[in-house]
Amino acid sequence: MTALRRLRDASIPALLYGPPGTGKTSLVEAAFPDLITVAGDGDTAVADFIGEYTQTPGGGYEFVYGPLVTAMTVGRCLFIDDATLISPKVLAVVYPAMDGRRQITVKTHKGETISAADGFYVIAGHNPGVHGAVLTEALASRFAVQIKVSTDYDLARRLKIDSKAVRVARNLAHRQNSGEIGWAPQLRELIAFQKVASVLGTDAAIANLLGIAPEEDRDVVAEVISSIYGRTIAPLALGHQL
User: Fold this and answer.
1) Is 61 helix (H, G, I), strand (E, B) or coil?
2) With a threshold of 0.90, does the pTM exceed it?
3) Mutual angle of helices 187-200 and 202-212, in 10-degree steps
4) Domain range annotation of the chain
5) Cα–Cα–Cα angle for 170, 172, 177, rounded to 5 degrees
């Protein structure tokens, strides 16, 4: 949080990257209380950043500014979540606001020029390996600082998550890094594990952890769980039905 705030003070854009569930979004939200977020996907359009004309109750139309313009005019932080799922042509609308110009032109609204107020800052999130996520050279070059965010297993222990579940996650993470499997539980899954365990018990939480693993990795996940918990586990399922 301290590093991100210093980067903002120096107007140095940052890109956080890592697997889903490692806490990228939570970190940004904690660092910047004035955050405005754009959740990116393949359908995100220029209007989702700039704004568009909408119909008024009286039957007319008025231009409603989007999150990029709002963040620029009032000096807030703009977080582009899953930025690499957004079309490069759409993301290009943000680039002039990030460089030395710190201005954009709203062509759809009288060619209006918007200048960034003090405090305006852009930070983005990227999940490598997610289908459709492409970190283009144009996007990467806009972020002078690129920070890898991985699961903090020591934090998981401090959150009082079952130590054996943390060991399972660590083991699978090592196997994932070696290329043996493509999935390992991240902090999000470990927190969910503890919540399930508190409601349904540890056995159900273990079975659920196995069940959410991709099928192609499930045999290895089952093997690791079995070696650490000392019993064979099947994916969570209904019992006998009447």
Assistant:
1) strand
2) no
3) 140
4) 2-148, 153-229
5) 95
> pLDDT, tens digit, for every residue of 3-20?
999 999 999 999 999 999
Percent of the chain with pLDDT over 70: 100
The full DSSP string for 172-222 is HHHHHHTTS-S----HHHHHHHHHHHHHH-HHHHHHHHHHHS-GGGHHHHH
Average pLDDT score over residue span 51-79: 93
Q: How far is Cα 169 from Cα 209, in angstroms, rounded to an integer?
A: 10
DSSP 135: -
- Which CATH number describes the domain made up of 2-148? 3.40.50.300
Q: 3-state DSSP call for residue 97? A: helix
Pairing of strands 103-106, 112-115: antiparallel
Q: pLDDT digits over 88-111, tens only?
A: 999 999 999 998 889 999 988 888
Dihedral over alpha carbons 190, 36, 91, 125 (to 10 degrees): -20
- Residue 123's H or E segment, with its range, is strand 121-126
User: Is 90 exceeded by the pLDDT of residue 178?
Assistant: yes
